[in-house]
Design a protein that fits this description.
- The chain is an all-alpha fold.
- It has helices at about 15-20, 50-60, 70-80, 85-120, 130-135.
- The protein contains five helices and no strands.
- The radius of gyration is 20 Å and the shape is elongated.
- About 10% of the residues are buried.
Length: about 150
């Protein structure tokens, strides 16, 4: 992937390192497990609003569905083997990208905390069509969705 050969595209090693970190492979799953609530519910129809919401989440949180976790230390060690000339910067590049992702996640979690609570409280009462649908109608304070 690094394409160090003369005929390859010769990606900048620093860009490759940031891109790998951007996949969330080094992000502990507990940092983004709250996003599981946005998962597709089997048997629910593909409505336009949900498809749009999913597309937006995919653009903002590209690694949200990753199922693999490799500790950042292991990833850094591999990169240091392949890019010894960047050895002193690799940890900084990886940590910088992970911090950027964690800040975005933290802000998003803060913004939707109220809806997460509503989704937990209303699952049994079926107040909403389904948990994930409540997010489609959240206006910043409440869920603008009636039982009808």
């Amino acid at each position: 992937m690094a394409c160090k050969t003369e005929t390859g595209p010769k990606y900048l090693a620093s860009d490759l390192i940031r891109a790998i970190a951007g996949t969330w492979i080094c992000l502990p799953p507990e940092k983004f497990s709250f996003m599981d609530v946005f998962g597709k519910v089997p048997g629910h129809p593909h409505i336009v609003e949900r498809q749009l919401g999913t597309a937006m989440l995919d653009m903002m949180f590209t690694g949200r569905e990753i199922k693999t976790y490799i500790p950042v230390e292991e990833v850094a060690k591999k990169f240091k083997t392949h890019f010894p000339e960047l050895s002193s910067n690799i940890d900084t590049l990886l940590q910088g990208e992970l911090e950027r992702i964690e800040q975005k996640l933290s802000l998003f979690h803060f913004r939707i905390a109220h809806v997460l609570q509503l989704a937990e409280q209303n699952t049994d009462g079926k107040t909403y069509m389904a948990d994930e649908d409540a997010f489609l109608y959240y206006d910043g304070d409440s869920v603008a969705l009636t039982e009808a």
